[in-house]
Design goal:
The chain is of the alpha/beta class and 486 residues long. The chain has two domains: 267 residues, Rossmann fold; 187 residues, Glycogen Phosphorylase B (Rossmann fold), CATH 3.40.50.2000. It contains 18 helices and 18 strands. Strands 3-4-5-2-1-6-7-11-12 form a nine-stranded mixed beta sheet. The protein has a six-stranded parallel beta sheet with strand order 15-14-13-16-17-18, with helices on both faces.
Length: 486
Amino acid sequence: MARKLKILLASSEVHPYAKTGGLADISGSLPKALKAMGHDVRVIMPKYKTVVECPLGFHPIALDFEVPIAGIREKAFLFEGKLDEDLPVYFVGNDAYYHRDHLYGSNGGDYPDNARRFIFFSRSILEFCKAIGFQPDIIHCNDWQTGLVPAYLKTVYADDKWFKNTRTVFSIHNLGYQGNFPVSELNTAGLPFSIYHPEGVEFYSHFSFLKAGLVFADILATVSPNYSREIQTKDFGFGMEGVLQKRSKDLFGILNGVDYQEWSPAKDPWIKAHFDPKHLKGKLACKKNLADLFSLKINEKTPVLSMVTRLSGQKGIDLVIGAMDHILKEGAAFVLLGSGEAAYEAYFQKMRQRFPKKLTAYIGFDEPLAHKILAGSDLLLMPSQYEPCGLTQMYALKYGTVPLVHAVGGLHDTVREFNLKTLKGTGFKFKGYEVNPLLKSLQKAFSLYTKKTPWRHLVLNGMQSDNSWDVSARKYHNLYLRILKR
Ligand code: ADP
């Protein structure tokens, strides 16, 4: 290895300490891949209630520091755990901010003090570096919750020698979440009003934490090549397309990787039986187990469709609702694990009561159950309206569960349409965010499911595809080197 880099990955969620979605998976797995390349990698996140409950454990570090916020100084307490051998994860403690039942809000709403909570976190990241004596080459920030870090470095800390050689990467995991707050939060953050203008952090008369990251980071990354192009257009840019077009040369799409230590049917501790491409019997046992768990009535010919998802509009739930009659008429069984918007939760609960033998919906967040569902189903539905990368379809591929997806973002990059003549391809894709194209794709899937040999090819193609971090971690490494040379 040419140069050992000091990398600090800052994230508002890191698996297994705290998770609401794919960001946590990436924040837990990318550092391991970078560490394996020989770098000095550290991770920092808030000390939520879930951190205290996590069996991996952590300990306090006899070091606290003060964080300037809203014109006063508040104490941050520091804790340390391990993501892996020699891979520390630091927790910023301030129970008033973080020791709550949820990460970002409850009952579908955000916590009213989210601006202040993540101002405190962002500022803590920089104060932490100084307190612990760590001079990072790279601070890799993720999503709006850490968007202020690059802004601080270019303003308040611009003359701070400690960070003279520090460069920032800002990764966009989902442009739909922007952290837009009242202008008055600039005071809370202690950032100068001179950055509040359309070329700076102003976004439709709000102070946007996401935009702060997009404008001030030295380089921008997002989680798939296709999404990096999409977000520069009006349809997918959520109003940020102009900023992103301007930074087009600094914006890179790098596909997320899968941590196959966690997601591998050959050794997954949560599933009924293990399997791999040469021994597929276990998959049938997993399917039967899944059906038994929820008292679903299935036989050999029943395709089991599943979704493991946040129940938000982004995830294409409206299309699924539109296609549900058809799915059930075809004799398929349907399993959903998810939580989110109340109307969607209510719909699935109602459907579960109406069709208890054919449809089940577990409303909640349950990691072991996610593994069981991915192992036990035949098809995974991901008809997302937009999808920056999507991890669930990549997990499904490994588990021999065929993804059926809307051809957007990372879904388009990671799933190849199956071709019956060549027997190549890993799943089904439809174009156009409407019920009809989804139905057509479902029809193709149901029809293929009845043909044993081609279906087996399809399943095996997916299981043998490789979405590990190897390639992507190298791309991040090259990106880091690129900005350090500037
Ligand atoms: P997003 O980050 O947009 O939610 P991804 O597909 O990238 O979507 O990642 C979702 C991650 O969250 C996957 O690891 C998936 O298994 C997990 N997940 C989503 N909903 C649930 C749930 N209700 N219970 C358990 N895991 C879930």
